[in-house]
Design goal:
Radius of gyration: 21 Å
Largest sheet: 7 strands, antiparallel
Helix content: 40-55%
Number of strands: 9
Number of helices: 15
Order of helices and strands: HEEEHEHHEHHHEEHEHEHHHHHH
Length: 418
């Protein structure tokens, strides 16, 4: 796409190519001191920034929009501080925030309550019960982090000026459609670099409670048995109307209950109410990247270096020649994502290192120091497997997932309550 492939030739783009707007939505389960999922009501009322997702015990932290990754991480940290304070004061007993994507000990799946809503939001309960019946409560408890990204208007307008489009709204929609397609096609690399769920409690797979289980996966939720629909969707990324029509068709065919049931690695989102009607009316406002694990190595579950890498990687991908992201390529992309969720990355290693070196060459000396360090950090992960999160976490927690997980959760709680 013009402007990305030769950004250094334009003064404004050279200075602002990495401008961005960032938001996070992070899911985490509340647990009691025994490492069992809490069965208490959501303790944060109607607070929009700390709400709930599938389960009554599954918190969802929602940040506002920031112009730097570090700022959005700081807000997420402050939301955790608020949550830890409240959870430490519950009359029913102190609770912790589980620091993994994989659930803690599942004592009885039937006792897991779907999120409860009242008044005009009661339909949300019906929808969650539908999800529980279709996918099973265990799978719906898999927690993750959604990374929301948008290009600032000033950057959009500058790119539009160098394009052949005559309508900025059309240009913007096409930009996000192409970004989404390319990000899905290359998501396998991000999964390898961020996978953080190589261990779980055996109760998650129907086994013995309190026994640690691990196999050949680096992330369960991104693997073949993870957080996916019962079919492989095909979406037309050539224009917004066809993209929205494809999703509507799946709903009409009964493959999806609602458009929100589409578990695609990248979603196109409008500003305001998240619906296809709003998307078509207002256009694309931002991308939502959905393949990030909750990482127990970091107090709020995410390393800012990984978000900075995804940002620079997305911009780099837009410099590549546009190809037809047809049905065959989309199926291949999904297959590669699921394969990249494995513990053994030998199949991807050479291509991954090549891609990261291409990213480094693309930016040359135009990367800020923190972004340059973030990129070098990713390269080190691939050149030394022991630096991959999945390897570090497996070594740390494979002897006692629940026990050591509780120690970690307690440590972060105390640290952020200070």
């Amino acid at each position: 796409m013009i402007g990305f492939d030769n950004y250094s030739e334009y003064d404004y783009l050279k200075t602002h190519i990495l401008d961005g707007e960032f938001g996070l939505e992070k899911e985490s389960l509340r647990v009691n001191s025994d490492g069992v999922i809490a069965n208490t009501p959501h303790p944060f009322g109607d607070t929009e920034s700390i709400t709930r997702d599938f389960s009554e015990a599954q918190l969802e932290f929602v940040t506002t929009i920031h112009t730097s990754v570090d700022d959005v991480i700081n807000e997420l940290k402050n939301l955790h501080k608020m949550a830890y304070k409240r959870l430490g004061e519950l009359k029913t007993g102190s609770e912790l925030i589980w620091c993994f994507s994989n659930p803690p000990l599942i004592d009885d799946e039937n006792k897991i309550d779907v999120a409860q809503f009242s008044d005009e939001k009661k339909d949300k309960i019906i929808y969650r019960k539908y999800l529980a019946d279709k996918y099973g409560k265990r799978k719906m408890l898999l927690s993750g982090i959604h990374f929301n990204f948008s290009f600032p208007d000033n950057l959009i307008n500058a790119l539009f000026k160098y394009s052949n489009e005559n309508n900025v709204r059309t240009f913007k929609d096409k930009l996000y459609l192409e970004a989404a397609a390319k990000l899905i096609e290359y998501s396998w690399l991000i999964v390898i670099l961020t996978a953080s769920s190589p261990v779980c409690d055996s109760s998650f797979i129907g086994g013995e409670k309190g026994k640690t289980y691990y196999n050949d996966f680096a992330t369960i939720r991104c693997g073949a048995d993870g957080y996916w629909n019962t079919f492989t969707p095909f979406l037309d990324y050539s224009n917004l109307e066809l993209y929205a029509s494809n999703i509507s068709d799946y709903v009409e065919q009964g493959l999806l209950k609602a458009e929100s049931e589409l578990y695609c690695p990248v979603r196109l989102k409008p500003k305001g109410e998240n619906s296809l009607e709003t998307l078509l009316k207002k256009g694309v406002n931002h991308l939502e990247f959905r393949l990030l694990d909750v990482n127990p190595l970091y107090e709020v579950g995410i390393n800012p270096d990984d978000l900075k890498f995804i940002h620079m990687f997305l911009v780099y991908l837009l410099s590549l020649e546009k190809t037809d992201f047809n049905r065959q390529k989309q199926k291949l992309a999904y297959d590669k994502i699921k394969k990249s969720a494995g513990y053994d990355i030998s199949y991807f290693k050479e291509k991954g290192i090549e891609l990261l070196n291409d990213v480094k060459q693309y930016y040359a000396d135009n990367l800020p120091d923190d972004y340059s360090n973030a990129l070098d950090f990713q390269i080190k992960k691939l050149t030394n497997n022991n630096k991959l999160y999945s390897h570090i976490i497996k070594d740390e927690y494979k002897s006692d997932y629940i026990g050591k997980g509780l120690v970690t959760a307690e440590y972060y709680a105390n640290k952020l309550r200070e």
